[in-house]
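Researcher: Next entry in the queue.
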Amino acid sequence: MKTILHKADSRGKADHGWLKTNLTFSFADYYDPTRMHFGVLRVLNDDIIAGGTGFGMHPHDNMEIITIMLEGALEHKDSMGNIGVIKPGEIQVMSAGTGIYHSEYNHSKDAPAKLLQIWVFPNERNIKPRYDQMTLELSERKNRWQKIVEPGPIEKGLWIKQEAWFHIGQFDAGQETHYKFRRPENGAYIFVIEGSVTVDGNQLNRRDGLGISESESVLSLNATANSEILIMELPMV
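Model: Structure for this entry, 237 residues:
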């Protein structure tokens, strides 16, 4: 098994006043040649957007973009005509494909919006752009893994153009759990949203990330505090 540990305080940082962000991988003005991506996982940004502010219309193409709201609400508009507000418990997926413009604004004038934005390289380029959003039942992630994203197309649920599965779990302190890979050749990137956990002997604390490749088919995790954990299983090439 190969591992790469990204401690929370080792991430790139940017403070634009209206936007404060921590960057697990090279992005914008943050560049580290050793932290370009993990397999097809290209971006993992931990953003705080001040009230009444946000990103104006800007383009994307050939990228699968997943937004996970943690606190507050984010208003989305795009060139396909979609308008929506994303709140905690909701996940947004956008396949940029041949090209799309969108904007993201804090829906509140006062309270900050906190979110994770994740980019994944697609397994097919220049597809028709697509947008989807779903509200998930938070109770379904209590001491177990709740699937939030999977490969598609599928009729129900959120999907992306990649052989990747994303799960979130909320585990009580002392709770042991396991994660079984869907594809043996995939790797996994584990991100601790809150709390702390050991993963096959590796101690992870709040906002730490651990990339695992060439692993056994099952990972063992033990929450050492009440924790919320994101695990992303994805191809390594």
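Model: The radius of gyration is 17 Å.
Researcher: Noted, moving on.
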